[in-house]
Amino acid sequence: MTVNRQWIYARKPNGQIGAGNFDLKEAAVPKAAEGEVVVRSTMLQFDAASRAWMQGQTYRSQLNPGDVMAGRGIGEVIESKADGFAAGDMVMSDIGWQTHAALPARQVQKLDKSVAPELHLSVYGITGLTAYFGLLDVGRPRPGETVLVSAAAGAVGVLVGQIAKLMGCRAVGTASDDAKCKWLVDDVGFDAAVNYRQGNLNANLKAACPRGVDVYFDNTGGDVLGAALSRMNMWGRVACCGAVANYDTATPSPGPAGVPGFLVTKRIRMEGFVVMDFFNRQREALLQIKSWVDDGKLKPVVDIVEGFEKMPETLVGMFAGKNRGKLLVRV
Ligand SMILES: NC(=O)c1ccc[n+]([C@@H]2O[C@H](COP(=O)([O-])OP(=O)(O)OC[C@H]3O[C@@H](n4cnc5c(N)ncnc54)[C@H](OP(=O)(O)O)[C@@H]3O)[C@@H](O)[C@H]2O)c1
């Protein structure tokens, strides 16, 4: 291809995001400067947090209208002026929503071509590491305990539930429809799942977690966080991973009432984390994750959409809960 197709984050959303917030543009395919590689993207990933990047500074700088939409992905090196890289290498980087990118070599990771790209971007990528460190280091589950995870059918959540089972815990998830909940129990191996949009959330969580909740892995914030806190056991742990319920709205939830007193009386530890903080231990985590996957104990779950032109509508669908597992686009 002789042009670089780019999705530009063109207009700031006012409330919920729509495909109209993005424009498709064409630019010249870049050339590599000294120390750079040019990559042709083959698979791009979606992160729920990308909606938060549009609102302000997070763990990365804010995205501004006019920027190429940000996001990680995998591609093939087509030109290299950097030591250690050659045309044909499979690499991962913050490519952005574009078919080609010139990237400094220090921001590019060379990948093992014998592993499928969708696995590099899911179970062996940020998603897998987030589930692993967030649950095991922050949540610290013990055998026999109950682990509850929100957005359980999503990329991080579906791995958290499976790792909780590997730790000998009862795994319970929340998701936005009955079909997803049934799939979590029948196909993924959760012990129970609750449709958080059905109403009676407190009563349904109580039924699904009859011995209370020892670890709550919070991907959402909002109503599910409030209901989960009310089910926490003494000395419970809340691993705050993300707040997707607050990303795609002009009116974020003020959060559950009465939290400080509640945390004190029940001696609950509520701790936020960012996966980058654990990168010095990623080798250890990946060895463990790979051995679980190789033994068939941890099932990678990916949701691949075909076609670069579908990027905006696919991101919109994530906030409607359309994905199961890691949402990716094959370019
Ligand atoms: N701390 C870190 O280092 C780190 C790293 C990676 C990701 N994260 C966080 O992990 C969470 C999951 O991210 P992901 O990229 O793996 O996405 P994901 O779970 O694959 O997709 C997002 C899911 O969130 C649910 N959702 C969307 N809008 C919602 C709303 N208004 N209320 C409640 N649920 C809603 C949807 O499922 P249902 O509605 O069907 O449940 C959707 O499938 C996010 O909060 C993200 O920010 C944190």
Provide structural commentary.
This protein has 2 domains: 150 residues, Medium-chain alcohol dehydrogenases, catalytic domain (Quinone Oxidoreductase, Chain A, domain 1, Alpha-Beta Complex), CATH 3.90.180.10; 151 residues, Rossmann fold, CATH 3.40.50.720. It is 28% helix and 26% strand. It contains 10 helices and 15 strands. The longest helix is centred in the middle third of the chain and has 14 residues. The protein is globular. The two termini are 12 Å apart. The mean pLDDT is 96. It binds NADP nicotinamide-adenine-dinucleotide phosphate.
Q: Name the bound molecules.
A: NADP nicotinamide-adenine-dinucleotide phosphate
Please tally the β strands and state the result: 15
Gyration radius (Cα, Å) is 20 Å
Q: How helical, in percent, are the residues?
A: 25-40%
Overall morphology: globular
Q: Report the end-to-end length measured between terminal Cα atoms.
A: 12 Å
List the helices and strands in order: EEEHEEEEHHEHEHEHEHEHEHEHE
Structural class of the secondary structure composition?
alpha/beta
Number of helical elements: 10
Number of domains: 2
CATH class of the largest domain: Alpha Beta
CATH fold label of the largest domain: Rossmann fold
Could you list the spans in which at least 5 consecutive residues all have pLDDT below 50?
Answer: none
Largest sheet: 7 strands, mixed
Mean pLDDT: 96
Q: Say which CATH homologous superfamily of the largest domain is assigned.
A: NAD(P)-binding Rossmann-like Domain
Assigned CATH architecture of the largest domain: 3-Layer(aba) Sandwich
Multimeric state: single chain
Strand content: 25-35%
